[in-house]
């Protein structure tokens, strides 16, 4: 509470900020859902020409606040002012009309539509009696693409773009609606540091042009690199209001977010016994795209797989567990050649698990209970001679893992979809622990997960390896990679282009990795084109 | 987030979620209303008439429910019923096969028809809607073509006696229904297969990556659906005392209406046998009430339509309430 008052005083005393009408001002916003007070008298001030960070752990109320600003929810209490005018948003359309553009965490583009069609979707230019004006559409799209310096053919279908490009198209779309207020929810969750830098330079330029930007992210490094001021939410309340980021350091910010000082356990390099490999991959080519992949993984080792989005890391992981056909090459487990034809064989015969990067789409059954989501991998082991499973037996098998991972859930019967993102991720990991795997492929374990849970997951992964599990860790989060991995393989265009020993010195390792990735990139400034289909496809797009 | 807070809201939610309480309440209410309005309702014969209808429709609804559980649908339940009825009738009358043999062959036929649905869906990757729409037409063609749309009347007498016999208000064919209901309830709640079925319906991608043979489960479920349709057809034949090619032609609507009223998620992943049983009674009672008050049968059709819309609407509201609560 002291932070709030002190921050408020700072604001009062600073003339530069109080003299100008804020672009967006929220006062005393409260919102309750049955049984949960999601927001309790929250304030937010966003000025033109400012990048403002909104941070807080999962469940702190950030999403609810964003949904109120974009008109998805209506607040129970409190006022919203846009440029000093009090407004009331009945729907997302109202918010759009008021000049508030949002780029949500999940993509909101229509894959089959072209870039131009997506950008002009809300207000397509028309000619005569409601006929679409194709030329004007392209022209308008080109204008906004230029505004964010994105060299794309407006007629390219969105499905051909890389994730980062889609992100930027969404920003162009938001800007095309004359948005002077831009909300970005976890915009860097699925893009690489290099792409992030490009995005940031665009955001800085927009700021200098007077756009008010609200930036939501879990990545504190980014917040300090990009933002000017910060508002911190904790348990639906203000933990810090409109504070100058220059007055804070990382530890202070984390303390504000979690309510106490952060304790980071040192996850040092492990001594790995490299006498007998657990997994050997030699010259693997798979229908999912892997090209001549070779590497070795030892028991107790965490091998990182780093690369740009679209480099083919998840595809390689899936090929290893039997999703997708292996065209040539060899996989050896404990020195024995194996042919894994389906994830089921990977699990039951070889005890290999794949923790998907997309827990909602591929990892969990959201409408089902925590219990059955964890037990799904062991059902066949739990059945008795009649093929029956007793709920009791299932429960006693599952609970130790739910406890070990400290999954916060009112009961094992709770639907997983009702848990927070961090707890969902824990459940999707727990099922592989229950399955007693000895080789785990963990794909982007902490995307969109708060600092505290992230540390817990890191410690867990490290502990698992210490107990002798082999872990292949896929991550686009460089600090995570450097904290956990023993060695880092760098992947590009479905090939492994380099290996970096992890000295745990950030600058050194990240530079070595990026050098491998950009080894033959002439231009470092433009966005990497993720798909090679793109260039050929752009030519024969039907108009 | 605070654990205690969640558990409070969950308790409140679980009352709304306990759908069977609502369904049972409505069924009880219907009984009270009908009993007070219509003296004929409480007669033994009326109950018998109602139950013999329920005995067949319940199995038809379950045949659809199993497929809905994996997030697919089977438009050919009625068509399978028809082809099984005509073929089984033919085997009894024309070939003179022993009753049991004919019944077993009839059940196998339905099972095979379901297997075809399942294999076509998984092998081609074409939407089950299209596949079963096509096979429905094919099966119906066979049904009508085999005996020029004429029924078989000469069915074994013991078989027909079973189909039309009763103990008080309870029809003998209901025994089969009870066995089917219990078996499916055990399957869904107690067995690995049941859990796998619901997991596939809940999220096929997650199920695959968790080591569940998704295609095999889908084939099994379609096959089971075919078997259930065949059971329903053979019971209905016995009850009618003839193998009508029209058997099954009016099953499609109730096969969806009952599971939907029972609150099944059309996206898959949920299936409650208890809710389906209650929903069968809920709809049968409305049907029975309209017959008792001598309403035009077309109004029954109309009412069924409105009930489906109402049930779907209610379900949406419920899901929305749960979702708001969770976020």
Question: How would you describe the overall organization of this protein?
Answer:
The complex is a heterodimer of chains A (about 550) and B (about 325). With about 550 residues, chain A is α/β, with parallel strands linked by helices. Chain A has 21 helices and 22 strands. In chain A, the strands form five sheets. Chain A has a six-stranded mixed sheet, sandwiched between helices. Chain A is globular. Chain B has a domain at about 45-250. Helices cover about 75% and strands about 0% of the residues of chain B. Chain B contains 14 helices and two strands. Chain B has helices spanning about 5-15, 20-35, 45-70, 75-95, 100-125, 130-145, 155-165, 175-190, 190-200, 205-210, 215-240, 250-260, 275-290, 295-325; strands at about 165, 170. In chain B, strand 1 and strand 2 form a beta hairpin. The longest helix of chain B has 30 residues, at about 295-325. The radius of gyration of chain B is 21 Å and the shape is globular.
SSE arrangement:
The complex is a heterodimer of chains A (543) and B (327).
Chain A: H1 2-13, H2 15-18, E1 24-33, E2 36-46, E3 50-55, H3 62-69, E4 77-82, E5 85-87, H4 92-97, E6 100-103, H5 115-119, E7 126-127, E8 131-132, H6 134-147, H7 163-176, E9 181-185, H8 193-208, E10 212-216, H9 220-226, E11 229-234, E12 237-244, H10 250-258, E13 279-286, E14 293-297, E15 302-307, H11 313-320, E16 326-333, E17 336-337, H12 343-348, E18 352-355, H13 359-363, H14 370-375, H15 379-382, H16 391-404, H17 421-434, E19 439-443, H18 451-466, E20 470-474, H19 478-484, E21 487-492, E22 495-501, H20 506-517, H21 533-537
Parallel strand pairs in A: 3-10, 3-11, 6-9, 9-10, 15-20, 15-21, 18-19, 19-20
Antiparallel strand pairs in A: 1-2, 1-4, 4-5, 7-8, 11-12, 13-14, 13-16, 16-17, 21-22
Helix pairs in contact in A: 6-7, 16-17
Chain B: H1 3-17, H2 19-37, H3 44-69, H4 77-93, H5 99-124, H6 128-146, H7 157-164, E1 166-167, E2 170-171, H8 173-190, H9 192-202, H10 204-209, H11 214-240, H12 252-261, H13 273-292, H14 297-326
Helix pairs in contact in B: 2-13, 3-8, 3-11, 3-12, 3-13, 4-5, 4-6, 4-11, 5-6, 5-11, 7-11, 8-9, 9-11, 12-13, 12-14, 13-14
């Amino acid at each position: 509470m002291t932070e709030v008052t002190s921050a408020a005083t700072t604001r009062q005393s600073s003339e530069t900020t109080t003299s100008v009408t804020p672009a967006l001002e929220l006062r005393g916003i409260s919102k309750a859902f049955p049984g949960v007070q999601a927001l309790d008298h929250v304030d937010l001030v966003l000025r033109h020409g400012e990048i403002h960070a909104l941070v807080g752990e999962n469940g702190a109320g950030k999403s609810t606040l964003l949904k109120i600003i974009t008109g998805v929810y209506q607040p129970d209490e409190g006022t919203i002012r846009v440029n000093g005018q009090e407004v009331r948003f009945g729907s997302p359309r109202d918010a759009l009309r008021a000049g508030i553009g949002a780029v949500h965490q999940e993509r909101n583009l229509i894959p089959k539509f072209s870039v131009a069609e997506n950008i002009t979707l809300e207000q397509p230019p028309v000619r005569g009696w409601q006929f679409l004006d194709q030329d004007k559409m392209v022209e308008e799209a080109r204008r906004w693409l230029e505004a964010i310096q994105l060299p794309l053919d407006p007629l390219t279908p969105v499905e051909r773009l890389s994730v980062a490009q889609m992100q930027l198209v969404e920003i162009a779309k938001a800007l095309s609606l004359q948005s002077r207020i831009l909300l970005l929810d976890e915009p860097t969750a699925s893009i690489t540091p290099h792409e992030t830098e490009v995005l940031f330079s665009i955001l800085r330029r927009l700021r200098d042009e007077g756009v008010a930007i609200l930036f939501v992210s879990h990545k504190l490094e980014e917040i300090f690199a990009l933002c000017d001021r910060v508002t911190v939410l904790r348990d639906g309340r203000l933990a810090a209001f409109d504070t100058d980021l220059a007055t804070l350091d990382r530890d202070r910010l984390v303390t504000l977010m979690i309510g106490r000082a952060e304790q980071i356990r040192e996850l040092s390099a492990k001594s790995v016994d490299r006498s007998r490999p657990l997994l050997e991959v030699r010259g693997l080519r798979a229908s999912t795209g892997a090209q001549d992949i070779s590497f070795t993984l030892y028991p107790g080792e965490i091998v990182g797989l780093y690369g740009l989005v679209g480099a083919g890391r998840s595809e390689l992981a899936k090929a290893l567990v039997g999703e997708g056909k292996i065209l040539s090459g060899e996989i050896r487990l404990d020195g024995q050649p194996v042919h894994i034809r389906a994830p089921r064989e990977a699990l039951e015969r070889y005890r290999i698990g794949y923790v998907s990067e997309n827990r909602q789409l591929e990892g969990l059954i959201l409408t089902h209970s925590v219990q059955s989501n964890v037990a799904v991998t062991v059902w066949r082991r739990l059945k008795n001679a009649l093929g029956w499973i007793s709920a009791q037996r299932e429960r006693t098998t599952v609970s130790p893992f739910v406890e070990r991972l400290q999954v916060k859930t009112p009961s094992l019967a709770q639907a997983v979809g009702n848990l927070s993102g961090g707890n969902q991720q824990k459940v999707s990991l727990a099922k592989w622990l229950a399955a007693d795997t000895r080789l785990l492929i963990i794909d982007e374990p902490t995307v969109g997960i708060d600092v505290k849970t992230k540390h817990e997951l890191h410690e867990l992964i490290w502990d698992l390896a210490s107990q002798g599990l082999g872990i292949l860790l896929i991550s686009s989060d460089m600090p995570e990679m450097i904290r956990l991995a023993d060695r880092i393989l760098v992947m590009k265009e479905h090939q492994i282009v380099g290996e970096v020993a992890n000295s745990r010195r950030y600058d050194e390792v990240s530079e070595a990795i990026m050098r491998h990735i950009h080894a033959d990139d002439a231009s470092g400034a433009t966005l990497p084109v993720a798909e090679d289909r793109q260039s050929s496809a752009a030519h024969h797009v039907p108009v | 987030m605070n654990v205690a807070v969640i558990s409070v809201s969950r308790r409140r939610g679980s009352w709304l979620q306990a759908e069977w309480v609502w369904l049972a309440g409505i069924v009880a209410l219907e009984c009270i209303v009908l009993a007070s309005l219509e003296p004929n309702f409480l007669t033994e014969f009326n109950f018998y008439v109602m139950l013999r209808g329920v005995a067949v429709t319940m199995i038809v609804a379950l045949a659809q429910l199993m497929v809905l559980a994996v997030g697919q649908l089977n438009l050919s339940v009625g068509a399978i019923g028809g082809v099984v009825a005509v073929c089984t009738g033919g085997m009894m009358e024309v070939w003179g096969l022993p009753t049991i043999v004919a019944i077993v062959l009839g059940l196998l036929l339905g099972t095979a028809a379901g297997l075809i649905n399942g294999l076509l869906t998984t092998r081609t990757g074409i939407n089950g809607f299209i596949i079963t729409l096509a096979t429905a037409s094919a099966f119906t063609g066979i049904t009508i073509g085999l005996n020029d749309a004429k029924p078989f009347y000469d069915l074994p007498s013991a078989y027909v006696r079973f189909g039309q016999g009763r103990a008080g208000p309870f029809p003998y064919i209901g025994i089969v229904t009870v066995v089917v209901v219990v078996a499916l309830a055990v399957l869904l709640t107690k067995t690995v297969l049941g859990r796998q079925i619901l997991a596939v319906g809940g999220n096929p991608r997650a199920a695959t990556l968790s080591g569940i043979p998704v295609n095999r489960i889908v084939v099994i479920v379609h096959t089971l659906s075919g078997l259930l349709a065949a059971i329903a057809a053979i019971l209905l034949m016995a009850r009618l005392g003839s193998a009508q090619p029209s058997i099954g032609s009016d099953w499609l609507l109730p096969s969806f209406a009952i599971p939907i009223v029972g609150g099944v998620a059309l996206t898959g992943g949920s299936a409650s046998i208890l809710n389906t049983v209650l929903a069968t009674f809920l709809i049968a009672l409305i049907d029975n009430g309209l017959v008792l008050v001598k309403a035009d049968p077309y109004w029954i059709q109309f009412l069924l339509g409105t009930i489906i819309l109402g049930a779907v609407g209610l379900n949406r509201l419920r899901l929305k309430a749960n979702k708001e609560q969770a976020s």
